[in-house]
Write a structure and sequence with these properties.
The structure is a single chain. The chain is of the alpha/beta class. The chain has two domains: 215 residues, 3-Layer(aba) Sandwich (Rossmann fold); 170 residues, Glycogen Phosphorylase B (Rossmann fold), CATH 3.40.50. It is built from 15 helices and 16 strands. The strands form three sheets. The chain has an eight-stranded mixed sheet, sandwiched between helices. Strands 4-3-5-6-7-8 form a six-stranded parallel sheet, sandwiched between helices. Strands 1-2 form a two-stranded antiparallel sheet. Helix 1 packs across helix 15, helix 9 crosses helix 13 and helix 11 crosses helix 14. The chain is globular, with a radius of gyration of 22 Å. It starts with a strand and ends in an 11-residue tail after the last helix.
């Protein structure tokens, strides 16, 4: 772009509303900079502090305040009250003011209807949407008694209006969702792959290669993580021939009774928990490696559970209300189908389910096929960026004459 005789680099702003959405936004930012290092990139995370952007060197706008719910404000009354007490209203007013004043060449929105509503405040030459949260597999209609969940679990009429009127292009993760939106008159929707899968380029962990059955423990990053991991460990202690491996990302590792803690020399190995003959390896920042090393997953997470299923790994989960609810799991079950097995938070039942599944070869083969169908395919980051740049070039927002990589 040339302004008053000066060459002004096009600005791309990424607006996202959640931890998983920030990860996707950062993945897309890296691909954008790889293909077009002339672009000026910036991010506006509306829910979290945006560490995913920070880790790849993307400048961050906004207040950068973390709410207790971690973006799950409407999932329970407890979360709603805590977020209000923590300053959700003044933070949102600050965001509205910021976004009303923001001007950018390209706005890339990663998230659901809330992110798209906020994005409507921004002055942008071209607006693109990555709907990374909702799939047609989850759709179950609008129920007035559970209106909060209905809005979160369906692409509603109002969201479709926003997509139709504001977005140059909408990207969804699976073909069924694309076809469903096309039937409703949205012919600018594409299913080009799932960017969240592009971060799973890991390698099996050497220390686990010879173990007969490896179960990954994914307790998540929110406040239920410590309690969830405690239950997972107790369930694992009831099994023989099973090795546990934890992808821990929730701060300092707590102490667990009845487990002896040893230190290990492997990369990012926080500890080895020992109890009789049972061993559990605890790693930090090796999430992809943990998944690539595992036969089963025991998870109380959102995006992490989905990533495991995308790799063809069965997930066992249980509710821990009020912060990891049965309603959340019902929604995730609709998305993941038979790849997710929901049980009660009873250590005997959890152990029995692990024992049943690890010996069911037919089920394991079925899950290996289901994952890519439900979650989309990898390579989405590059495909989405290619399409975005092509569309923005046709609109004259980004100079097509630039010779990229």
């Amino acid at each position: 772009m040339v302004l008053f005789g000066l060459v002004v680099m096009p600005t791309v702003t990424i607006l996202s509303n959640g931890h998983g959405e920030d990860v996707i936004g950062a993945q897309l930012a890296q691909e954008l900079l790889y293909q077009r290092p002339d672009l000026l990139l910036q991010a506006y995370p509306t829910v979290d502090r945006g560490e995913a952007y920070e880790s790849v060197g993307i400048p961050i706008l906004g207040p950068r305040k973390r709410m207790p719910s971690g973006g799950l404000l409407l999932h329970s009354m407890e979360y709603f009250v805590e977020d209000i007490r923590a300053g959700f209203v003044p933070m949102t007013l600050r965001q509205i003011r910021d976004l009303w004043q923001l001007q950018t060449d390209v706005l890339l929105v990663v998230g659901d209807i809330y992110a798209q509503l906020l994005s409507a405040l921004v002055r942008a030459e071209a607006r693109f949407v990555v709907q990374s949260l909702v799939s047609a597999y989850q759709s179950h209609g609008i129920h007035l008694r559970r209106l909060n969940r209905s809005v979160m679990e369906n692409i509603t009429y109002f969201e479709r209006v926003l997509m139709r009127r504001l977005a140059v292009r909408v990207y969804v993760r699976d073909e069924r969702t694309r076809a469903s939106l096309e039937k409703r008159g949205l012919d600018h929707v594409r299913a080009l792959g799932n960017p969240i899968l592009d971060a799973l380029q890991g390698e099996p962990i050497t220390e686990l290669k010879d173990e007969p059955c490896v179960v990954a423990l994914l307790p998540g990053t929110r406040r239920h993580a410590e309690k969830a991991l405690d239950l997972m460990l107790e369930a694992l202690a009831r099994l023989s021939g099973v090795t546990g491996v934890v992808a821990w990302a929730a701060g300092d590792l707590p102490d667990f009774s009845n487990w002896q803690v040893k230190r290990g020399a492997a990369e990012n190995l926080i500890a080895i928990l020992q109890r009789a003959s049972q061993r559990v390896f605890v790693f930090r920042e090796r999430f992809a490696d943990v998944l690539k090393s595992s036969d089963l997953v025991l998870g109380t997470a959102g995006t992490a559970n989905e990533q495991a299923v995308a790799l063809g790994i069965p997930v066992i989960s249980f509710a821990l209300p009020p912060f990891y609810t049965a309603a959340f799991l019902e929604n995730q079950k609709r998305l993941l189908g038979d790849s997710l097995v929901v049980t009660s938070p009873d250590i005997r039942e959890i152990a029995a389910v692990i024992d049943d599944l690890r010996n069911d070869a037919e089920y394991m083969e079925q899950v290996a096929r289901l994952g890519p169908e439900r979650l989309g395919r990898p390579g989405g980051s590059r495909a989405i960026v290619n399409d975005l740049l092509e569309c923005a070039g046709k609109l004259g927002v980004i100079d097509k004459s630039y010779i990229g990589r």
